[in-house]
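Two quick folds needed for the group meeting slides. Do the first one here.
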Amino acid sequence: MELLPSSIRYLPRDAYYNGDNVRGRELFASAIEKIAGYDHILITHATSPFVRTDSFQAALDFYLSNLDHYDSLIACRKFDKYAWFEGKTLNYDPYEMIQTNSISPIVVETSGFYFFSASHYLSTGSRVGYRPHFWELSYIESLDIDTESDFKEAERVFGLEQIQALVGHHLGESMSKDIDCRLKVSLEKPKLIVFDFDGVLIDSRRCMELAWSATCKQFSVDIDFELFFACVGMKFEDIMRNLDIDHSQWSAFSDTYFQNTCSNYHEVVVFEGVLEGLCDLKSYGYKVAINTSKRLSNTMELISLLFPDIEFDFVCTPDNILSKRGKPAPDSLLLIASTLGIDPADSVYCGDMNVDQQCAIRAGVKYFHAGWGFGDFAQINTIWFECFKDFSNYLLFL
């Protein structure tokens, strides 16, 4: 134990408690009895090594300052997802499919930390009080490593080098032999962060659906919205080509569609955490740009409406590009990087569709998948984040 700081008091547990059949509450009760005299307890787990020091401090300060309101504090993750348990829905009516950004979140405990009073535990055997406060951690901090598959999940998000740096030892060959080198993330801090617009910064699905329906009706075109939506991310002309829309109607059809989107801007919302995250990234010194297949005029209108306080360093649409080639061509990302004087190798791109990933690969730009976006995550073979806050926290962590 010579590696422990002198301020740490090491209390080895009795051999009995090393057995696989010993319950957690027995372990905690034994530990609390050994440190008798303390009013409040913090329990954390060695299997959650990524919780930041400032998270511990902030949670501790909140807990001690709010004992009149809460008797315990639990590190957790919140999921705005449709959830079921034992064949029944937990947080939504399947016959009333409300949007997930309006759903009541499911709260899941992590092994990050628990704060509670010693007296409560000794009287109830529970580290959760009657009035708990749920302290949300980022996806990175909430990782709980218990199995080899947990290690692989952590490697998928961080990259093997990140895990080694934080855990402080080299993983054995058995734990790393299946790592796909394409999924490793460079630890070098990038200079430029490029975001796709629809599905990454804004949720515009309803707006697009209304605009598409109205446009198809005006042109007597019978194409289901889902077929159109599967093509989102491409240049609009490429979408019309893929959907076999009469070429002679392209100009009028696209003009009408984008006019109809303007009529439904009230249906567009910014994803949770985006505004705060963008401000943090800008203040941290990152260049921040947008790469979208929308028309420039529509894009700037939405930026003015939804991001009035964010100064993007560059906004790229097919209208900016001399070649007029849209995603998955690399032209847009290369234009953004060259205009801002930043090497593609020092840039990252966050998108939600396959064309975004292909655009990044062809441009030589690192790609991150927005798991909160429109794309089919099952088809994405890359680093992903569940929410914007997790992605921005990762970049601030570098």
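Then this one, please, same format:
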Amino acid sequence: MSEAGSLWGLFISSFLASTLLPGGSEGVLVWLHQQQAASTFSLLLVATLGNTLGGMTSWGIGYWL
């Protein structure tokens, strides 16, 4: 799997796990780190971005509903 594909997969997993769908993006993060799919900094940055944007989306849905 390419580095970009790995990071997009992690972002989507993190985003969905922090919005409507239950799931553990941590498992994806650990697996990608073990596979050395990208640098540790890139993995943490993308996971943080996905979780943060997912949380903001959940807040927005709750606010507007």
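Slide caption for protein two: The chain has a mean pLDDT of 93.
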